[in-house]
Each structure stands twice: as C-alpha cells, then as structure tokens.
Amino acid sequence: MADRAALAAFLRARREALQPEDVGLPRGRRRRTGGLRREEVAALCAISGDYYGRLEQPRGPHPSEQVLAAIARGLHLSLEERDHLFRIAGHTAPRRVRRGDHVSPGIMRILDRLEDTPAQVMNHLGETLVQTRPAVALLGDETAYRGFARSAHYRWFTDPASRLVHPESDHAAQSRLMAADLHGAYTHDGGRSRAAKLVDVLHQESPEFAALWTKHLVLGSHCASKRFLHAQVGALELHCQTLVDPEQSQRLVVYTAVPGTESHTNLQLLSLLPLAEGTASSIDPAPPW
C-alpha cells in the first residue's frame, strides 16, 4: 500500500533541496525559496502541475511506475532515492541491475545545461533514454520506440528509413560501427543477456548484420565526426563527444560543429525549428523484452 504522507513529504524534501542551477534554470531575483517550484518540477517530469501538486498535498492518485520513473529523473534522484520513492508509493523497486535505464543525477545535471545543443543519453544497447530538444530536431524522437526498436542498432539493420539521416556513402562505415558496438555489449554481458537477445534477432532479420558479426569488429575509443542530412536545414558535419558513465553503462553523446562553418550555421538553425506534435524527451524505463 502507498504511504501518501511519506510520499508527499519525500517529494517536498527533494524538491526543496534541488536548486534551480542544478537543472539549468535561472534563479531570478523574485525567487523566495531556495528549491524548485512545484510547476518547475512538474515540467521536468513531463506531468501536469496539478497532478504533481496533489501528490505533495497529499491527495493525489496512486502514481504508476512510469510516472514514478519520470519523477525520479526530474528530481535527479540517486538509485537509492529512486528505490525509496517506489516503495513508499506502493510499488516494488525496479530490479537493480548494473546496466539500468535510470540516468544518474550527475549526467542529468550536465544534460540540463545543453538545452541549445543536440545531446542525448544512451545505454549500451543503443537505446536513447533522454534527449535535448535540438537532438529531437536532428534525429527525431528516439525515445518513442518500443520493443527491440528501442535500439538504434536494431533500427539501423532492419528499418531502411533509419539510414536516411546519413549520406548513403557513409552507410557501410556506420554499419561496421553499429556491429562493433553491439559486439562489445554482447561480449561484456554474456550469452543470456538482453544484448544476446538483440544479437539473435538481428541474425534472423538482417543478413548484413550476420555477415558483419562474423568479422568480430572491435569499436575504437574515438568518436569520429558524422555527416547528417536534414530535410529542413540541409547537410551537417558534426563532431561527436561522448561522456561515459561506467557504473550505469550509459553515455552522454553531444554533437557540435566547428564555429564559422556552414554546419555550425545549420546547427544553430536546427535549434530554432519547432518540434513535431507529440514528441517527448523521456521514456517508460521498462523495456517490454
């Protein structure tokens, strides 16, 4: 059973402890409290202000696991704090795995400061967990997929539309990178892992992947520049910087362009584009496979 009073008190305490600077918000001169406002937390969690306010009062509905996961990300909770949140809300804490989908508070703080830059957090299977607005404009809402399609590796080898973002002359190299990256995940996780399931499915559905798999490609540490084709702003050559969180086996991928180049100009235009209706920046953390 949910402990509504404990849930409300915990949410208030974490909201008041979280500073505007922690999530990339300006403090402003008229801010009377040191912590965040309820409406600010609600926006970070992608839930309505009224819904969040009722949880803190406490008179709200029984939150689902999906809502709790969104709140944990929005409040930048640690894994221990996330588990506590689930328990007092009447749910079993998510299974503790080293390679989870819970983005660490430190990575979230960095991402919050990249609101004008294409950046996203991905796990070791190529599943996008959270994106900045420019990343959605560049790559589409990669958090909206379900099942095996959550993985960029799976989409690359099974969905031709996923390749349209890169010039055709780059496809072969990108295929090798995708296969090598998944090979690394499989080698580390073993034959009974989610990575192994993904490899098995790709062997069945993609002859190209099956052929590359036999080559035992190894991914290097350097993230080279990538060329993108965007329907509205045109061609972009972007450099890819990656910050790795080894505990979570996640990586923060940031795309930048050399100042003064056409790609830099196009990247600035990209940030001004309106997002398609229904795009999101975070996902249900529990994959259905």
How would you describe this structure to a colleague?
By secondary structure, the protein is α+β, with helices and mostly antiparallel strands. The chain has two domains: 85 residues, 434 Repressor (Amino-terminal Domain) (Orthogonal Bundle); 166 residues, Beta-Lactamase (2-Layer Sandwich), CATH 3.30.450. It is 41% helix and 11% strand. The chain has twelve helices and five strands.
Share of residues in strands: 5-15%
What is the class of the largest domain in the CATH system? Alpha Beta
Total helical segments: 12
Average predicted local confidence, pLDDT: 86
Calculate Rg over CA atoms.
20 Å
* CATH architecture group name of the largest domain: 2-Layer Sandwich
User: What is the H/E string?
Assistant: HHHHHHEEHHHHHEEEH
What spatial order of strands do you see in the largest sheet? Answer: 2-1-5-4-3
Keywords:
alpha+beta, 434 Repressor (Amino-terminal Domain), Beta-Lactamase, 2 domains, five-stranded antiparallel β-sheet, 5 strands, 41% helix, disordered C terminus
Helix-strand blueprint:
Elements: H1 4-17, H2 38-45, H3 49-56, H4 65-74, H5 79-88, H6 105-112, E1 119-123, E2 128-131, H7 133-139, H8 152-158, H9 171-189, H10 194-205, H11 207-213, E3 226-230, E4 234-245, E5 250-256, H12 262-270
Antiparallel strand pairs: 1-2, 1-5, 3-4, 4-5
Helix pairs in contact: 2-3, 2-4, 4-5, 8-9, 9-10, 9-11
